[in-house]
Each structure stands twice: as C-alpha cells, then as structure tokens.
From TrEMBL:
Its EC number is 5.1.3.13. PANTHER family: DTDP-6-DEOXY-D-GLUCOSE-3,5 EPIMERASE (PTHR21047), THYMIDINE DIPHOSPHO-4-KETO-RHAMNOSE 3,5-EPIMERASE (PTHR21047:SF2). This is dTDP-4-dehydrorhamnose 3,5-epimerase. Catalyzes the epimerization of the C3' and C5'positions of dTDP-6-deoxy-D-xylo-4-hexulose, forming dTDP-6-deoxy-L-lyxo-4-hexulose. Gene3D superfamilies: Jelly Rolls.
Length: 169
C-alpha cells in the first residue's frame, strides 16, 4: 500500500460537521431537510438556534450564474447570514480584523440545496462566493441591518487582491 496522509474526520456518525469555522465570530450550522409527501421542507433560520442573537433587518436573494463569483467584500457594521437554497456555492472567508484572535485566517465551505447550511458572517470578515456546478445558484441573505441606499455598508476588493491569501477563481 502507498504511504500518504490519512484523512481527518470531517463528520460525525450522525453526519454532522466536526470542523468549526476557524474564524472568530463566524457561525456555521448545517440544516437537515425534512422529507414530506410532496418534497422537502428546509428551515433557513430560527431565533431559538442562538446563532447570533441579532434581529433580521432585511432578507434578500442573489442569483449567481454557473461559474459566477461575487467578489471579495466586507461590511463595517452589518452581519450577513448566507443560505444557498438552489444550486451549490463555495463561501470563502478571510478575517481582516486586526484585533481578532484569528486575524489572517481563511475558511471555506461548500453548501447548497443538497447540503444546506447557514453561515453567519460578522462585520469585518471579507467574503466571496463562487457558484459551483451547472445550474444558477440562489443565495438568501438575512442581514441584521437593512441596506442603506444613501450610505451602503459595503467595502470591496478586487478578485485578484494581494491582501487576501486565497484566490476565489
């Protein structure tokens, strides 16, 4: 037999993820769809899960065509709660908060209709989304503060930025 590096455990025997996000303040919860006689019901967010304790100020959806990438962006005061309900996406995070114990950490997760999860992204975390697979992905965002049209809380970096040690594409 060839020698190599053994895989580390990524799920429990109940198929729950064992790898917590490696970025301080980021919360991740896999969600189990419930089979019904006519399809599936998937809860997206429940206050009682205690993921962040923040209000829901706005809910919006974003589509990404196959191979589409949202680009690196962060917020100064807004918390994102991302859930992919159609298709599959890779969410990539970079902790750009200099005072954070995980400053400089990078974390990725593939989520979507087949493996639903919600990712809570606090202010100051750079994040980008890449659509995977052959279909258009649909991402829901349940932000704690509604978008301010006159003063957007939205900061951007180019896809190929040298400030983040990971390339989205």
């Amino acid at each position: 037999m060839a020698t190599g590096t053994p895989d580390r455990q990524t799920v429990t025997s109940d198929w729950l993820a064992v790898d917590a996000p490696a970025i301080d303040g980021v919360t991740f919860k896999e969600i189990r769809p419930v089979a019904t006689s006519t399809g599936y019901l998937t809860e997206v967010f429940r206050e009682e899960w205690g993921l962040d304790g923040l209000p829901v100020g706005q809910v919006f959806q974003r589509t990404l065509y196959p191979g589409g990438v949202s680009g690196w962006h962060a917020h100064g005061v807004t918390t994102d709660r991302l859930f992919c309900s159609v298709g599959s996406i890779r969410i990539s995070l970079f902790d750009g908060r200099k005072a954070s114990p995980t400053f400089g950490a990078v974390w990725h997760k593939i989520v979507g209709a087949i493996r639903p999860a919600i990712v809570i992204i606090p202010p100051g975390i750079w994040h980008g989304i890449a659509s995977l697979g052959p279909e258009t992905a649909l991402v829901l965002n349940l932000v704690d503060k509604a978008y301010a049209y006159d003063a957007p809380d939205h900061w951007r970096l180019p896809l190929d930025t040298e400030q983040i040690p990971y390339k989205l594409v």
